[in-house]
Design brief:
Elements: E1 2-4, H1 5-13, H2 18-28, E2 32-34, H3 39-54, H4 62-74, E3 78-80, H5 86-92, E4 96-98
Parallel strand pairs: 1-2, 3-4
Length: 99
């Protein structure tokens, strides 16, 4: 079980101060932190976005494309409670665990 580096960023930027961020980061570091990035990965995430849009399912958030693409590419199931990931599950075969 792990967390994407971009998800760590999303969690931390919502906190009110550095002390709270350090405390939460300590908890997040209990999980494996997966690195994202690179041109091949960016290209793949954009391709997934276009495929879904062509099938009538426009994804509202770029980071959702990145998270879902990472899970698809690496064979991870995604734990979530966000309907924005439904097109990835329905159309691209994303494995999910609903919270």
């Amino acid at each position: 079980m792990g967390v994407l580096d971009l998800c760590v960023c999303e969690v931390l930027h919502g906190l009110s101060d550095d002390a709270e961020a350090a405390r939460v980061l300590g908890h997040l570091r209990r999980f494996e932190i997966f690195q994202t990035g690179g041109i091949e990965f960016a290209t793949e995430a954009a391709r997934n976005y276009r495929q879904l849009r062509q099938r009538g399912r426009t994804v509202r958030n770029t980071i959702d494309c990145i998270i879902a693409t990472f899970c698809l590419r690496e064979g991870h199931a995604l734990l979530h409670s966000d309907h924005d990931f439904d097109p990835f599950e329905d159309k691209l075969g994303l494995q999910v665990v609903h919270a």
